[in-house]
Amino acid sequence: xxxxxxxxxxxxxxxxxxxxxxxxxxxxxxxxxxxxxxxxxxxxxxxxxxxxxxxxxxxxxxxxxxxxxxxxxxxxxxxxxxxxxxxxxxxxxxxxxxxxxxxxxxxxxxxxxxxxxxxxxxxxxxxxxxxxxxxxxxxxxxxxxxxxxxxxxxxxxxxxxxx
Length: 163
Description:
The structure is a single chain. Helix content is 69%, strand content 2%. It is mainly α. It has one domain (19-148). A hairpin with a 6-residue loop joins strand 1 and strand 2 (145-146). Helix 1 (21-78) packs across helix 2 and helix 1 (21-78) crosses helix 3. The radius of gyration is 21 Å and the shape is elongated.
């Protein structure tokens, strides 16, 4: 149906049919989390032993699952409508906080859990990965999502023209 000048289309009724930049950002966050995982688990193992390493691995799995679930919710619901996407973003955040809390609550008394490395991993990984991702996210509508990668030839041209 083509809109007439008298009709109004609510932006909340619109949906997104294009590529999903949030899914690309989510994949990039998980990739960066897997890159930093050996260092984080090594630090946990040095200070708290094997139980600390297992707790750190569990915490990192919680963080990476949280980022993946958030990206999935936004990209899936954006195809339905923007109103559904906004609701999924708001209530999904609350539900994901509950899932993280439950994931810690149900294992807190297990023999392999060290709460300090578990909680520190969850907090440091969330904040650290988000700050790391800031370097790669484009703030341009021309390239929503991740910044386009420059190849070596583009870098040479850019550096030679700036001299």
